[in-house]
Amino acid sequence: MKKGLAIIVVVLVAVAVVIVAIGCKQKQSSKYKYRIAVIPKGTTHIFWKSIHAGAVKGEQEFQALGVDAIWKGPLKEDDRESQIRVVEDFITRGVAGIVLAPLDDVALRGPVREAVNRGIPVVIIDSGLKSKDYVSFVATDNYVGGRKGGRRLAEILGGKGRVILLRYQEGSASTMNREQGFLDVLKEEYPQIEVVRSNQYGGATTESAYEASEGLLMPLRTPDGGLTIDGIFCPNESTTFGMLRALQDGGLAGKVKFVGFDSSERLVAGLKKGEIHGLVLQDPINMGYLGVKTMIRHLEGEQVEKRIDTGSEVATPENMNEPKIKNLLEPDFKKWLNE
Hints:
The chain is of the alpha/beta class and 339 residues long. The chain has helices spanning 2-29, 46-61, 80-93, 109-117, 142-156, 173-189, 206-217, 237-249, 265-273, 284-299, 323-329, 334-337, and strands at 34-39, 67-71, 97-100, 122-125, 136-139, 161-167, 193-201, 231-233, 257-261, 278-281, 307-309, 313-315. Helix content is 47%, strand content 17%.
């Protein structure tokens, strides 16, 4: 009899522990009113660390509303399947909203549609999506940014010469728009500039971009070690750095006019040395911040703009120490990420 009572007591205690644990878990989860997933294209480049910093800034600003910005994305910027899985996982978890930088403007349409059908709104940042299933698109006007890059290269070439374009990768709407803007402004405004090569892709990593750059430059070398071209344009951080390395290793850095896109410590060093002659800069911290802020405004029932342009500037060796440009060249992402 005593043994039976002891078993009952043990069972009741166990049930009580489970009930308390569930209650604690529910209390803990109710701490957040809005869990917002922030999903980048990749997580290694300085650009994405800056986007992350902006998302943290937004989270902290709206802490009183119970906002939790969850950062998760693929490691590499060519892993479409991984990004799709991340989106699907957050849909299953039932987050309040998703802030997404689509790695592919077509491949991510299905997952975004699924999120919206499940009642989860989506804000698109950085790169476009061939869909209307989103609340707002927060990004640089990449076409305009590409035109700025083309104009900068044309100006330092004196409006004439032979140039090449190293593209990023197919399916990336942001960089495709930059590339098109670059080509269009040269065609429209600088008829004496010839685009010699424009069909080579650097790929998602600095290593693949370096290899592509070497392959692109090799047939353009002259017998005396120079180049048969006058200028180069690259549309993002990895292609710009891959090309910079190839020029440095080939003894060509500074001998050809070179304009890139985005910033990193190594690209800033190249700008200082005169190995890079212009960098088109975005404001990734502001982009991440506005992505989260726009989602919160929507969730709070406010009307938000369908398109929010976060702007762009061109850094040159001459203006790189001006406060506005310096802040974009060297964004203080470590402040927000505690690095």
